[in-house]
Amino acid sequence: MSSNEVEQHIRNQIRALLKNILSEQANFQLVSEKISELIQLLENSASEYGISWCVTQIKAVFLEFTDEAQQTVVNIFEQFQDKSSVLKDIIFELKGEESAESKKRVHEKERVAKRKKKSATLETGAEALPKPFAPAPAVVSEDLEPTAHISESKELESIAEMTEEEEELLAELEEQQRVALKEEKSEPPPRYDDVSTVHGQRNVLIDYFSQMNTYRVYPLTITISEAELERRKYREDILTGEKREQVEKEISVREQLPLTVGVYFPGCLVTPTEQRIELLGKTQQLTFFVTPIAKGKMKGSVVFYQEGKKISEFTLDFKIFDQRLAKAIALTAMAVSAVPSSLYYLFGIDINQQITTNLVRFIPLLTSPLLLALEIVLSIMLLGASFYLYKQYSAVRKQLTATYSS
Fold first, then answer.
1. Measured between alpha carbons, how far is residue 192 from residues 8, 10, 96, 298 in Å?
2. Is the torsion defined by CA of 80, 81, 84, 87 positive or negative?
3. What is the CA radius of gyration of the chain?
4. Taking a C-beta distance cutoff of 8 angstroms, is the pair 243, 209 a contact?
5. Helix, strand, or coil here: 272?
6. What is the rounded distance in angstroms from the CA atom of residue 347 to the CA atom of residue 350?
7. Which of 256, 229, 255, 231 is nearest to 244 (CA)?
8. What angle do CA 23, 25, 31 make, to 5 degrees?
9. What is the average per-residue pLDDT within 84-107?
10. Residues 223-273: pLDDT tens digits?
11. HSE on the CB side for 146, CA within 13 Å?
12. How far apart are CA 162 and CA 153, in angstroms?
């Protein structure tokens, strides 16, 4: 990856994090998480390319916002400045000031430059000494010996001793810098195309029918959220055999890239087969429609892609069969119509004649008040049972066919 691509990549990540911080500034916990991600990104970049390079990238993104948004970002940064020294430098740079750490680093550089200058001066000889150490005028002592040369030699010795200590300190600092540079080169640079470098966690809830009838349309809903999602427990429809289930899983995504979701159910028509979304809101929902054609037990899948690469996959078991209700009614009709004829053909029993005879015999008894009351009670119980079963069936159908929303 070239340097321009790295800069653009880092700026896109910084831009996405700052937008999330501005949009969710009322949510302290979410802002704290995004700030932690930003600090990690800045520290990684600073260790690889230097703090000044990192400051340049974030200032380039910072200038894209309005004055009010810039002030809001600075205020939020100041609340978390104790988490990272790099963030402190960023705050002072954005405010146009100089941090204590920056001053310390500049001062250290100046001291190193002075030490090198003094070392070079000592190597050139006494003629290049600064003015404070210029040779003093010769003074003749009582013993007729030049005392000026004695004082000058003492000054040179003190300078040599001081410079030697400074040279040792300078050599030690240079050795530390060489070791640090060697360690940095030995470590591989961070891969910005890897999901694990800058990523976010999302909870995914898939609501689908695990048992379906042929040639009917069933919704499949996929909910993607930063928060935990509540699962529902559905009941099976005893008449149609339809059953609805939910599957939940956590996936890792790159927040700055769009997410493509594909649904693949063999033996079914799926509309649409894929959908593409931007990971912007807290909760997002996608709806697909599945129409079964074939019969039998099968396995489907829901696959998540970013940049054309599969990052996660759900495996869903489902079953497709014909209408149970239609078959049950047809079998019942065939049985009812075939029983009387079969009994008469096999055993000579005419059920229709017996029913007619019994009705003629017991019709006069229906005038009795007791029997009439019993008939009314039985009729009410039958109607109540029918109404109860109808309500139970309606509740199950309403729950199965309702569109799930978080």
1. 11, 9, 30, 39
2. positive
3. 43
4. yes
5. coil
6. 9
7. 231
8. 100
9. 64
10. 999 888 888 888 788 778 889 999 998 998 988 889 999 999 999 999 999
11. 8
12. 14
CA-nearest of 356, 376, 352 to 366 is: 376
Kindly report the three-state secondary structure assignment for every residue of 82-132: HHCHHHHHHHHHHCCCCCHHHHHHHHHHHHHHHHHHHHHHHHHCHHHCCHH
Q: Which residue has the higher pLDDT, 51 or 249?
A: 249
- pLDDT level of residue 194 (50, 70, 90 thresholds): very low
278: which residues sit within 8 A by CB, 6+ positions away?
Answer: 258, 259
- Enter the tokens of residue 329: 């009614």
Angle formed at CA 152 by CA 150 and CA 156, multiple of 5 degrees: 120
Which residues are within 8 A (CB) of 397 and not within 5 positions of it... i.e. 6 or more apart?
A: 237
How far apart are the C-alpha atoms of 111 and 122, rounded to whole Å?
17
Of 258, 246, 256, the residue nearest 302 (C-alpha): 246
Give the Cα separation of 370 and 236 in Å (integer): 42
Please, what is the angle between helix 100-124 and helix 147-186, to 10°? 130
pLDDT for res 389: 80
Compute the distance between CA of residue 18 and CA of residue 12 in angstroms, rounded to an integer: 10
**Residue 93, SS3 per DSSP:** helix
Residues in a beta bridge with 213: 321
Q: How far is it, in rounded angstroms, from Cα 253 to Cα 279? A: 9
**In the block, which residue shows the tokens 């910084």?**
14
AA identity, residue 277: I
User: Which DSSP helix (H) or strand (E) runs through 201?
Assistant: strand 200-213
- The conformation of residue 306, written as its DSSP 8-state character, comes to E
What angle separates helix 51-62 from helix 85-94, to the nearest 10 degrees? 50
Strands 309-321 and 200-213: parallel
Q: Which two tokens stand for residue 291?
A: 């129409």
Structure tokens at 76: 């939020």
Q: Report the C-alpha gap between 107 and 309 in whole angstroms.
A: 49
Give phi and psi for 145, each to the nearest 5: -115, 140
Q: Which of 236, 189, 182 is nearest to 209 (CA)?
A: 236
pTM of the model: 0.40
Q: What angle do CA 14, 18, 20 make, to 5 degrees?
A: 120
Say if CB 226 and CB 250 are below 8 A apart. Answer: no
User: In terms of residues, how long is the chain?
Assistant: 406
190: cis peptide before it, omega within 30°?
no
Distance in angstroms (rounded) separating the CA atoms of residues 281 and 100: 39
